[in-house]
Amino acid sequence: MGRFYDQANIPAELRRNYDVYERIRQLGINLGTFEDNVGSLRGANIASVCFTEAGLVYLSGIGTGQLPMIEEESIIRHGQEAGREAADFHIRTLHWALVCGKEGGDLNDVLYTVKALGMVVSPGGGTFGRAPQVVNGYSARWQSVFGGPIGEFAVDGIDPGGFSGVHARSALGGFDGRFSQEPEIIVAIPQALAQAIIAHRGWLFPLPPAMLEKVRRLWT
Protein backbone atom coordinates (compact mmCIF):
# COMPACT_ATOMS: atom_id res chain seq x y z
CA MET A 1 0.00 0.00 0.00
CA GLY A 2 0.98 3.65 -0.16
CA ARG A 3 3.17 5.08 2.58
CA PHE A 4 0.55 7.67 3.53
CA TYR A 5 -2.29 5.14 3.27
CA ASP A 6 -0.53 2.83 5.72
CA GLN A 7 -0.60 5.59 8.34
CA ALA A 8 -4.26 6.51 7.80
CA ASN A 9 -6.98 6.01 10.39
CA ILE A 10 -9.03 3.36 8.56
CA PRO A 11 -10.51 0.27 10.24
CA ALA A 12 -8.54 -2.88 9.41
CA GLU A 13 -11.69 -4.50 8.01
CA LEU A 14 -12.06 -1.73 5.39
CA ARG A 15 -8.47 -1.39 4.24
CA ARG A 16 -7.63 -2.30 0.65
CA ASN A 17 -5.55 -5.45 0.45
CA TYR A 18 -4.11 -5.05 -3.05
CA ASP A 19 -1.91 -2.80 -5.18
CA VAL A 20 -4.09 -0.42 -7.19
CA TYR A 21 -1.50 -0.38 -9.97
CA GLU A 22 -1.78 -4.13 -10.40
CA ARG A 23 -5.49 -3.74 -11.12
CA ILE A 24 -4.74 -0.91 -13.51
CA ARG A 25 -2.32 -3.21 -15.33
CA GLN A 26 -4.87 -6.02 -15.51
CA LEU A 27 -7.53 -3.65 -16.84
CA GLY A 28 -5.18 -2.33 -19.51
CA ILE A 29 -5.42 1.32 -18.43
CA ASN A 30 -2.58 3.36 -19.93
CA LEU A 31 -1.30 5.99 -17.48
CA GLY A 32 0.92 7.64 -20.09
CA THR A 33 4.04 9.70 -19.43
CA PHE A 34 5.00 12.77 -17.46
CA GLU A 35 5.52 14.74 -20.68
CA ASP A 36 2.04 13.92 -21.98
CA ASN A 37 0.12 14.48 -18.75
CA VAL A 38 1.84 17.17 -16.68
CA GLY A 39 1.41 20.62 -18.18
CA SER A 40 1.04 24.30 -17.43
CA LEU A 41 -2.00 26.16 -16.15
CA ARG A 42 -1.02 29.12 -18.34
CA GLY A 43 -4.07 30.45 -20.18
CA ALA A 44 -6.48 27.99 -18.55
CA ASN A 45 -9.75 29.09 -16.99
CA ILE A 46 -10.24 25.99 -14.82
CA ALA A 47 -8.10 23.30 -13.22
CA SER A 48 -8.42 19.56 -13.81
CA VAL A 49 -7.67 18.80 -10.14
CA CYS A 50 -7.85 20.88 -6.98
CA PHE A 51 -6.32 19.69 -3.67
CA THR A 52 -7.51 20.86 -0.27
CA GLU A 53 -5.47 20.84 2.94
CA ALA A 54 -8.13 18.65 4.55
CA GLY A 55 -7.41 15.90 2.01
CA LEU A 56 -10.41 16.21 -0.32
CA VAL A 57 -9.41 16.18 -3.99
CA TYR A 58 -11.80 17.52 -6.63
CA LEU A 59 -11.56 16.37 -10.26
CA SER A 60 -13.32 18.40 -12.95
CA GLY A 61 -15.80 16.80 -15.30
CA ILE A 62 -14.74 15.36 -18.66
CA GLY A 63 -17.11 14.93 -21.58
CA THR A 64 -16.81 11.59 -23.40
CA GLY A 65 -18.69 9.67 -26.05
CA GLN A 66 -20.13 10.90 -29.33
CA LEU A 67 -23.86 10.20 -29.10
CA PRO A 68 -26.66 11.74 -27.03
CA MET A 69 -28.63 9.16 -25.06
CA ILE A 70 -31.96 7.77 -26.22
CA GLU A 71 -33.99 4.71 -25.15
CA GLU A 72 -32.06 2.26 -27.31
CA GLU A 73 -29.82 -0.49 -25.94
CA SER A 74 -26.91 0.08 -28.34
CA ILE A 75 -26.92 3.80 -27.49
CA ILE A 76 -27.01 3.05 -23.76
CA ARG A 77 -24.00 0.77 -24.18
CA HIS A 78 -22.21 3.56 -26.04
CA GLY A 79 -22.90 5.87 -23.09
CA GLN A 80 -21.61 3.30 -20.61
CA GLU A 81 -18.42 2.87 -22.63
CA ALA A 82 -18.07 6.65 -22.60
CA GLY A 83 -18.26 6.44 -18.81
CA ARG A 84 -15.44 3.89 -18.74
CA GLU A 85 -13.38 6.21 -20.93
CA ALA A 86 -14.04 9.09 -18.53
CA ALA A 87 -13.05 6.96 -15.53
CA ASP A 88 -9.79 6.00 -17.24
CA PHE A 89 -9.11 9.68 -17.90
CA HIS A 90 -9.75 10.58 -14.26
CA ILE A 91 -7.58 7.71 -13.00
CA ARG A 92 -4.73 8.80 -15.26
CA THR A 93 -5.14 12.47 -14.30
CA LEU A 94 -5.28 11.69 -10.59
CA HIS A 95 -2.18 9.50 -10.86
CA TRP A 96 -0.10 12.30 -12.33
CA ALA A 97 -1.60 14.92 -10.01
CA LEU A 98 -0.44 12.78 -7.07
CA VAL A 99 3.00 11.70 -8.30
CA CYS A 100 4.33 14.56 -10.41
CA GLY A 101 5.96 16.39 -7.48
CA LYS A 102 7.49 13.22 -6.01
CA GLU A 103 6.16 13.95 -2.53
CA GLY A 104 5.85 10.20 -1.96
CA GLY A 105 2.19 9.61 -2.75
CA ASP A 106 0.38 7.79 -5.54
CA LEU A 107 -2.98 6.13 -6.29
CA ASN A 108 -2.42 3.62 -3.49
CA ASP A 109 -2.85 6.57 -1.11
CA VAL A 110 -6.47 7.22 -2.12
CA LEU A 111 -8.35 6.53 1.12
CA TYR A 112 -11.83 6.31 -0.36
CA THR A 113 -14.12 7.94 -2.90
CA VAL A 114 -16.53 10.59 -1.68
CA LYS A 115 -18.91 11.71 -4.45
CA ALA A 116 -19.42 11.41 -8.21
CA LEU A 117 -21.74 13.42 -10.42
CA GLY A 118 -22.65 12.19 -13.89
CA MET A 119 -24.36 14.61 -16.29
CA VAL A 120 -25.89 12.71 -19.20
CA VAL A 121 -26.55 14.28 -22.58
CA SER A 122 -30.15 13.35 -23.39
CA PRO A 123 -32.07 16.19 -25.06
CA GLY A 124 -35.80 16.24 -24.53
CA GLY A 125 -36.50 18.09 -21.32
CA GLY A 126 -35.72 15.30 -18.91
CA THR A 127 -37.83 12.57 -20.56
CA PHE A 128 -34.86 10.15 -20.67
CA GLY A 129 -35.07 7.97 -17.56
CA ARG A 130 -31.92 5.85 -17.68
CA ALA A 131 -29.22 8.33 -16.69
CA PRO A 132 -28.16 6.23 -13.65
CA GLN A 133 -27.71 3.18 -15.89
CA VAL A 134 -25.50 5.19 -18.25
CA VAL A 135 -23.36 6.58 -15.42
CA ASN A 136 -22.96 3.05 -14.03
CA GLY A 137 -20.35 2.59 -16.76
CA TYR A 138 -18.24 5.22 -15.01
CA SER A 139 -18.89 3.96 -11.48
CA ALA A 140 -18.17 0.33 -12.36
CA ARG A 141 -14.83 1.19 -13.93
CA TRP A 142 -13.87 3.32 -10.93
CA GLN A 143 -14.80 0.51 -8.56
CA SER A 144 -12.81 -1.95 -10.65
CA VAL A 145 -9.68 0.01 -9.77
CA PHE A 146 -10.38 1.19 -6.22
CA GLY A 147 -12.75 -1.54 -5.00
CA GLY A 148 -16.49 -1.98 -5.00
CA PRO A 149 -19.41 -4.34 -5.59
CA ILE A 150 -20.07 -3.48 -9.25
CA GLY A 151 -16.42 -3.56 -10.34
CA GLU A 152 -14.88 -6.27 -12.49
CA PHE A 153 -13.19 -7.94 -9.51
CA ALA A 154 -16.36 -8.30 -7.45
CA VAL A 155 -17.76 -11.78 -6.76
CA ASP A 156 -21.45 -12.13 -5.83
CA GLY A 157 -21.68 -8.38 -5.23
CA ILE A 158 -18.62 -8.15 -2.97
CA ASP A 159 -15.14 -6.98 -3.94
CA PRO A 160 -12.62 -8.98 -1.89
CA GLY A 161 -10.24 -6.03 -2.18
CA GLY A 162 -12.44 -3.53 -0.38
CA PHE A 163 -14.92 -0.69 -0.81
CA SER A 164 -12.80 2.43 -1.38
CA GLY A 165 -14.19 2.97 -4.89
CA VAL A 166 -17.80 3.12 -3.70
CA HIS A 167 -19.18 6.66 -3.74
CA ALA A 168 -22.25 8.76 -3.21
CA ARG A 169 -23.54 9.82 -6.63
CA SER A 170 -25.98 11.89 -8.62
CA ALA A 171 -26.83 10.96 -12.23
CA LEU A 172 -28.78 13.57 -14.13
CA GLY A 173 -30.12 13.60 -17.70
CA GLY A 174 -31.64 16.23 -19.94
CA PHE A 175 -28.47 18.09 -20.91
CA ASP A 176 -27.60 19.23 -24.44
CA GLY A 177 -24.15 18.60 -25.87
CA ARG A 178 -22.04 16.91 -28.53
CA PHE A 179 -20.99 14.02 -26.26
CA SER A 180 -22.62 11.32 -24.12
CA GLN A 181 -21.88 12.11 -20.49
CA GLU A 182 -19.69 14.29 -18.30
CA PRO A 183 -18.72 12.75 -14.93
CA GLU A 184 -16.80 14.47 -12.15
CA ILE A 185 -15.56 12.98 -8.87
CA ILE A 186 -14.23 13.80 -5.39
CA VAL A 187 -11.81 11.54 -3.51
CA ALA A 188 -10.11 11.65 -0.13
CA ILE A 189 -6.37 11.32 0.44
CA PRO A 190 -4.45 11.51 3.73
CA GLN A 191 -4.22 15.03 5.09
CA ALA A 192 -0.44 14.71 5.42
CA LEU A 193 -0.09 13.94 1.70
CA ALA A 194 -2.40 16.78 0.68
CA GLN A 195 -0.43 19.23 2.81
CA ALA A 196 2.90 17.98 1.44
CA ILE A 197 1.66 18.49 -2.13
CA ILE A 198 0.32 21.98 -1.43
CA ALA A 199 3.46 23.06 0.44
CA HIS A 200 5.72 21.83 -2.36
CA ARG A 201 3.86 22.83 -5.55
CA GLY A 202 0.47 24.28 -4.72
CA TRP A 203 -3.10 23.02 -4.87
CA LEU A 204 -3.73 23.10 -8.63
CA PHE A 205 -3.18 20.65 -11.48
CA PRO A 206 -2.14 21.36 -14.22
CA LEU A 207 0.55 23.38 -12.52
CA PRO A 208 1.18 27.12 -12.40
CA PRO A 209 4.18 27.81 -14.66
CA ALA A 210 6.74 28.31 -11.89
CA MET A 211 5.67 25.07 -10.20
CA LEU A 212 5.78 23.18 -13.48
CA GLU A 213 9.41 24.16 -13.94
CA LYS A 214 10.10 23.12 -10.36
CA VAL A 215 8.69 19.61 -10.75
CA ARG A 216 10.02 19.16 -14.28
CA ARG A 217 13.53 19.36 -12.87
CA LEU A 218 12.70 16.32 -10.72
CA TRP A 219 12.00 14.24 -13.83
CA THR A 220 15.06 15.21 -15.88
CATH topology: 60s Ribosomal Protein L30, Chain: A
How are helices and strands ordered from N to C? HHHEEHEHEEHEH
- Give the domain tally: 1
Average pLDDT, rounded to a whole number, is: 96
| Distinct helical segment count | 7
Beginning-to-end CA distance, first to last residue: 27 Å
Give a description of the structure:
- The chain is of the alpha+beta class and 220 residues long.
- The protein has one domain: 60s Ribosomal Protein L30, Chain: A (2-Layer Sandwich), CATH 3.30.1330.
- It is built from seven helices and six strands.
- The protein has helices at 3-6, 20-27, 34-37, 73-99, 131-146, 191-201, 209-216, and strands at residues 49-51, 56-59, 112-121, 168-175, 181-188, 204-205.
- The protein has a six-stranded mixed beta sheet.
- Helix 4 runs parallel beside helix 5.
- The protein is globular, with a radius of gyration of 18 Å.
Key descriptive features of the protein:
220 residues; alpha+beta; 60s Ribosomal Protein L30, Chain: A; six-stranded mixed sheet; 7 helices; 6 strands
Question: Can you lay out the helices and strands and say which pair or pack?
Answer:
Layout: H1 3-6, H2 20-27, H3 34-37, E1 49-51, E2 56-59, H4 73-99, E3 112-121, H5 131-146, E4 168-175, E5 181-188, H6 191-201, E6 204-205, H7 209-216
Parallel strand pairs: 3-4
Antiparallel strand pairs: 1-2, 1-6, 2-5, 3-5
